[in-house]
Design a protein that fits this description.
The structure holds 2 protein chains of 2 kinds. Chain A is mostly helical. Chain A contains 9 helices and no strands. Chain A has one domain: MetI-like (MetI-like fold), CATH 1.10.3720.10. In chain A, α2 runs antiparallel to α8, α4 crosses α5 and α8 packs antiparallel against α9. The radius of gyration of chain A is 21 Å and the shape is elongated. The N and C termini of chain A lie far apart (about 50 Å). Chain B has one domain: 3-Layer(aba) Sandwich (Rossmann fold), CATH 3.40.50. In chain B, α3 packs across α4, α3 packs parallel to α5 and α5 packs parallel to α6. Classes of the chains: A mainly alpha, B alpha/beta. At the A-B interface, α6 and α7 of A face α2, β6 and α3 of B. Chain B: This is ABC-type polar-amino-acid transporter. Chain B: Keywords: ATP-binding, Cell membrane, Membrane, Nucleotide-binding, Transport. Chain B: It is a peripheral membrane protein.
Chain lengths: ~220, ~260
């Protein structure tokens, strides 16, 4: 029994170039937000490990604000807030900013965990030879921490692919948005959704495979 | 390992106008209410090999770690070649370039090769070029007898080899003094000899060393001076023969008896 519903993909598939365009935009959001959030997350993560409360405090406040409130709320709030504080950007940029700030908060925690998981002796050996803490962090601590962070960062990538769909609410023409538009205009909403599902899988299955590979590699090297 | 009966380190004693390599004055260190160091005075002269003995918890490692400010003393003064050390970063970096350290757990950098570990100080602290720093590292590795392992990760080496790489790393910045914090305690007995031999050869080349250890044979044959710490104070110090064979205090006699008992 299928409730009498007749699947018909022809109208949706006839407009396939729109899906590819939208998929490219999704990939663009994914790439830019990943780079931005990793950079912000690195500095915020280092800030979280600071011994100075006036560094750690504000960073902690930022991280918790973005980690403990819904991403969807952040996307919409930032979209309306930016023009008010005098920043005029289009919906795409606004969406990327929201995704980046949100993911950076989680990356900050991952960086912090990675940094603090490194044995004290590594800091001591670096300091004992007269290295500045910033040099020790860059040459000794982070290279080791980042290796341990690869699997969680990979999981975040998979998760970000999915969360890019949320910027459809502010009208960014990424995959989810296009599927809704096409669905409405062809009256084939379900078919349209199933097609974008395939696109999300096409992005995330390789990413997820990469994560398992990194996981396995790490277990072997541990 | 051949038995050496003459102490290799030079005797203490200072020509006029010269500074000690290291001077500790009334050094105190507390963790909360727990006072670990209760006023340590110690001078180390050029070429001396000072062995520091003491039961666990006596404060001997804390004292050693105060010398290069890995622990910040609660009060007291540290001078390196007459220069007072404080905790301002620039001053601290300058001090630490003069004082090398070898740790119980080696603390080699697992993200670098053996060669890069030894070259790290010259390269990242002194800003030497990669080629120059690695050339120096190669010489030092040869000196500690680690040959043909340049591109290997340190974790692939035996504990004894790792510790010798760590010694080469500590020497790479040409420190005036090298501190050893129980350098053989994490090693299996059969691997200790190679590390002790390396240390002995450093001593014979005139390297100034401060060594926290339980290796009595090293203390007896290599030290120019032995210091016994207990309860955060120096209880006895002097010539190894005198301190180890004719201990004055009951505490040191007890400590030596116990060590002998454990080593049998």
């Amino acid at each position: 029994m299928n409730g009498g519903y007749q699947f018909d993909f022809s109208a949706v598939l006839a407009r396939y170039p729109l899906f590819f365009e939208a998929a490219l935009l999704t990939l663009e959001i994914l790439a830019i937000a990943t780079v931005a959030s990793l950079v912000i997350g690195l500095f915020a993560g280092i800030g979280l490990t600071s011994e100075r409360w006036y560094v750690r405090g504000p960073v902690r406040a930022y991280v918790d604000l973005f980690r403990l409130t819904p991403l969807l709320v952040q996307i919409v709030t930032i979209f309306f807030l930016l023009p008010i504080v005098g920043i005029t950007v289009n919906a795409l940029v606004s969406g990327i900013i929201a995704l980046s700030l949100n993911y950076a908060a989680f990356y900050a925690e991952i960086f912090k965990a990675g940094i603090t998981s490194i044995d004290r002796g590594q800091w001591e050996a670096s300091r004992a030879m007269g290295m500045k803490d910033s040099t020790a962090l860059r040459r000794v601590i982070l290279p080791q921490a980042i290796r341990r962070m690869l699997p969680p960062v990979g999981n975040m990538l998979v998760s970000l692919t999915k969360d890019t769909s949320l910027v459809s609410v502010i009208g960014v023409a990424e995959l989810m948005s296009v599927s809704q538009t096409l669905g409405a205009s062809t009256f084939r909403n379900l078919e349209s959704l199933l097609v974008v599902t395939v696109f999300y899988l096409a992005i995330n299955i390789p990413l997820s495979a990469l994560v398992s590979y990194l996981h396995k590699k790490q277990v072997v090297n541990a | 390992m051949p038995e050496v009966t003459v102490p290799l380190g030079r005797k203490s004693g200072l020509p006029a106008g010269e500074h000690y390599e290291i001077e500790l004055r009334d050094l105190h260190k507390s963790y909360g209410d727990n006072e670990v160091l209760k006023g340590i005075d110690l001078d180390i002269a050029l070429g001396e090999v000072v062995v520091i003995l003491g039961p666990s918890g006596s404060g001997k490692s804390t004292m050693l770690r105060c010398i290069n400010m890995l622990e910040t003393p609660t009060s007291g003064e540290i001078r390196v070649r007459g220069q007072v050390v404080d905790s301002r970063p620039a001053n601290l970096m300058a001090l630490r370039r003069e004082v090398g350290m070898v740790f119980q757990q080696f603390n080699l950098f697992p993200n670098m090769t053996v060669l890069e570990n030894v070259a790290a100080g010259p390269r990242y602290v002194r800003g030497m070029s990669r080629a120059d720093s690695e050339a120096r590292a190669q010489q030092l590795l040869t000196r500690v007898g680690i040959v043909g392992k340049d591109d290997v990760r340190p974790t692939r080496l035996s504990g004894g080899q790792q510790q010798r790489v760590a010694i080469a790393r500590a020497l790479a910045l040409e420190p005036r003094v090298v501190l050893f914090d129980e350098p053989t305690s994490a090693l299996d007995p059969e691997l200790r000899g190679e590390v002790l031999d390396t240390m002995k050869s450093l001593a014979s080349q005139g390297t100034t060393m401060a060594v926290v250890t339980h290796e009595m044979s090293f203390a007896r044959h290599v030290a120019s001076r032995v210091i016994f710490i207990d309860g955060g104070v120096i209880v006895e110090e002097g010539d190894p023969a005198q301190v180890l064979e004719r201990p004055k205090s009951a505490r040191l006699r007890q400590f030596l008896n116990k060590l002998e008992w454990e080593n049998d």
